[in-house]
Design brief:
The chain is of the alpha+beta class. It has seven helices and 20 strands. Bound molecules: uridine-diphosphate-2(N-acetylglucosaminyl) butyric acid.
């Protein structure tokens, strides 16, 4: 295990300068033992750093998940169950699965981050969520130094939510994730313009690779490349509002887009709400609301975490005063 005092700037995708007290690179379950029983407010668990916003100096120890490994633990005619280590890169795993001829993950192509972080917010895109393929995960409850296996029910997955953002927030280190992939391709093409793009390319019988290719193209056209422009993807969750609130907006703007949610509620795209408030493409100093997708806040250069947070706060206030909807960040703010 290495130990060092490092800037966090290269360890997260927002590109904001920040410092961690100590950074520990966790390469095996054994490396976690020294942290057993430690106060959970004294450390942060880090994956690929694609969903965090560190605000200046973090007076905590950073535990970065770098546990590697992929294995097959069950296989039959229909499916294969894989066990992937938490420190593996998510998109490399998706590509590897496609290379083996296993499908299911194609709609989740090109999502930045690690396999271990994927269950925390139940990553989702283009009509598919991690939970749809999830079997169980392994991890360590650091406060008690207890190795645990959690099945799907225990993970309590919701929209960008799980038990790891609730009761187990901050002190459960996910070491391995088990997913069941399909050997027979079952396309999920209903969301957005995936079907349309395939048609444009004259692909009438797409395989999983073709769908992955189209998802990559759509993501590249709408979302900034984090290697070029700092961001953490969607900054906000799409708010889930009750029918009365939705109908109130509908009267004023009949074109309001919406998705189904639990009974009596609908999900309204935060990007649409933000655009309606005039923020799309707007920039203050080095912070901006992305011109192609208003849900994304970008760092054009040397913006600090506090500047990014203040910018997000102004957007939240405007959406609240125009629509009476309080948006919540999807990004985890580290202080
Ligand atoms: N919209 C606007 N203006 C905008 C952006 C979007 O009016 O600036 C409208 C679109 O026209 C569309 C609707 O909002 O009617 C939805 O837009 P989109 O399909 O781009 O998806 P989203 O709801 O904005 C969510 C996820 C993304 C994921 C896409 C595709 C959340 C918070 N975000 O965005 O996830 O890629 O769906 O499935 O649920 C991420 O988590 O980092 C992320 C990028």
């Amino acid at each position: 295990m290495n130990q060092a005092f490092l800037s966090l700037k290269t360890l997260h995708t927002f590109g904001a300068e920040a410092f961690g007290r100590e950074i520990h690179f966790i390469r095996s379950e054994d490396d976690l033992q020294v942290f057993f029983g430690m106060d959970p407010t004294s450390y942060y668990i880090l994956g690929g750093g694609s969903n965090i916003l560190p605000v200046q100096t973090i007076d905590r120890v950073i535990l970065r998940n770098e546990i590697k490994g992929r294995e097959i633990i069950h296989e039959d005619e229909e499916s294969v169950t894989v066990r992937i280590a938490g420190g593996e890169d998510w998109d490399e795993f998706v590509q590897w699965a496609l290379d083996q001829g296993w499908s299911g993950m194609e709609n989740l192509s090109l999502i930045p981050g690690t396999v271990g972080a994927a269950p925390v917010q139940n990553i989702g895109a283009y009509g598919v969520e991690l939970k749809d393929f999830f079997i169980r995960l392994e991890g360590v409850l650091l406060t008690e130094g207890k190795a645990m296996v959690l099945n799907k029910e225990a993970c309590r997955f919701g929209y960008r939510d799980s038990v790891f953002k609730q009761e187990l927030s901050g002190n459960f280190f996910i070491t391995r994730v088990q997913l069941r992939l399909n050997k027979k391709f079952k396309p999920q093409l209903s969301y957005g313009n995936i079907a349309e793009r395939l048609k444009e390319k004259n692909i009438t019988h797409p395989d999983a690779r073709a769908v992955s290719g189209v998802v990559r193209e759509i993501r590249r056209s709408k979302l900034p490349d984090v290697g070029v422009l700092g961001s953490a993807g969607s900054f906000f969750k799409n708010p889930v509002v009750d029918i009365d609130t939705y109908e109130r907006i509908l009267v004023l703007t009949p074109e309001v887009p919406h998705y189904p949610a639990k009974e009596g509620y609908v999900k309204i795209p935060a990007g649409w709400l933000i655009e309606q408030c005039g923020w799309k493409g707007r920039r203050i100093g080095a912070v901006g609301c992305y011109e192609k997708q208003a849900l994304v806040i970008v760092n054009y250069g040397n913006a600090s975490g506090s500047e990014i947070l203040a910018f997000a706060g102004m957007i939240i206030e405007d959406v609240k005063s125009k629509f009476s909807i309080t948006m919540t960040p999807e990004v985890n703010v580290w202080r």
